[in-house]
UniProtKB/TrEMBL annotation:
Family: Belongs to the DNase I family.
Listed PANTHER family: DEOXYRIBONUCLEASE, EXTRACELLULAR NUCLEASE
GO BP term, pick one: DNA catabolic process
MF term (GO), any: DNA nuclease activity
Organism this protein belongs to: Rosistilla ulvae
Stored InterPro entries: DNase_I (IPR016202), Endo/exonu/phosph_ase_sf (IPR036691), Endo/exonuclease/phosphatase (IPR005135)
Name of the protein in question: Endonuclease/Exonuclease/phosphatase family protein
Length: 346
């Protein structure tokens, strides 16, 4: 049965005051919306409860994580992988709460992150960061390498991953054997697998990562060793076909030496990766003929994507996080994979 609508009687004054009042009301509401003062209308009085995208509307744009996906806002069809040199990450940086909050926010955008330059005598700063990452209900986990380096200023690698979307293959993490001491810090290897494929009937995407931080004074030698590392790991992990070498290599793409001469292998990033925006020295390398799951790549630019002042960007790191997006379902490689040397990786 139709409901009768109540007829409103128009007052003569409304013909004159109505349009101006409406314009004024729209201007006021627009101003309040732009300045973030409409929370009292939406019940969002607690400003600390804002989501990542509300607090930092530009963050999701590079990865487009706000598209249809799972409960975490990440699309089920893809995995986002990143490499991030957090620059002298230790007790001092962990005491900077503003920086730590931004680090946690950045890490939450990705499913697996290869981290370099952790400098702490114990793991307390890493555990503090992981706790902050998980403070919004996430379930990230971390695995750390040994402390590495020839000097007193030693570093650790880390892999951090979202355990609700990805699993690290048990026992798969190890340091590459470097008995001849060719590298200042031995690369750190681990294998991962998506918990669910995005395509119906497909196998979940699995991959092995090689986490690297070269010494800036030894890049010529180390890059000509890393091609052997890549090939050795690929030969050792014979049941896997997708390999991702990620890290701070301290050289531009055209300076990758013998590593850049492996057929099919290339750095997928095309943007500047230092905070100053002058160099592209952080890389994610894949064999494009094999890892056909690759979709896109880029960086999180603190000033562009997070709208941060340069001073705060520099406190976070002198490196920008580099990311790459892959299908969460396994694809077949293009053509036949070339044979690799039968060397031992560990």
């Amino acid at each position: 049965m139709a409901t009768r609508r109540k007829k409103l009687t128009s007052l003569p004054i409304g013909r004159f005051a109505g349009p101006p009042l409406t314009i004024v009301l729209f201007l006021v509401v627009g101003y309040l919306a732009l300045t973030g003062r409409l929370s009292f209308l939406t019940g969002g009085g607690d400003q600390t409860a804002s989501s990542d995208t509300e607090a930092f509307p530009g963050l999701g744009s590079p990865l487009q994580l706000a598209s249809t996906g799972d409960a975490q806002g990440k699309p089920s069809e893809t995995l986002a992988i990143a490499t991030f040199n957090i620059q002298v990450f230790g007790v001092k940086k962990a005491e900077d709460l503003e920086v730590m909050q931004y680090l946690a926010l950045i890490l939450r955008q990705f499913d697996v992150i290869a981290v370099q330059e952790i400098r702490s005598l114990d793991r307390a700063p890493v555990d503090q960061l992981l706790s902050l990452v998980n403070s919004t209900g996430e379930q990230y986990q971390v695995v750390l390498s040994e402390r590495l380096g020839r000097t007193d200023s030693k570093e650790q690698y880390a892999y951090i991953w979202d355990s609700r979307r990805v699993e690290m293959v048990e026992g798969s993490n190890y340091l590459v054997n470097d008995d001849a001491d060719f590298m200042h810090r031995e690369p750190f290897v681990a294998s991962f697998r998506a918990l669910q494929a995005g395509a119906v009937g497909a196998q979940p995407f699995s991959f092995t990562m090689i986490n690297v931080h070269t010494d800036p004074d030894e890049t010529d030698q180390e890059l000509n060793v890393l091609d052997d590392v890549f090939q050795s790991v690929r030969a050792y992990e014979f049941s896997e076909d997708d390999f991702i070498l990620a890290g701070d290599l301290n050289v531009e793409t055209i300076q990758l030496g013998e590593l850049g001469q492996i057929q099919g292998v290339e750095s997928v990033n095309r943007e500047q990766t230092n905070t100053a925006g002058s160099r592209s020295i952080d890389h994610i390398l894949i064999d494009r003929t094999v890892t056909t799951e690759f979709r896109s790549a880029g960086v999180i630019n603190y000033e562009r994507d997070l709208k941060l002042p340069r001073e705060l960007a520099d406190r976070i790191s002198d490196h920008r996080p580099v990311w790459a997006v892959f299908d969460s379902s396994e694809h077949a490689p293009r053509g036949v994979i070339a044979a690799v040397p039968g060397t031992t990786a560990r």
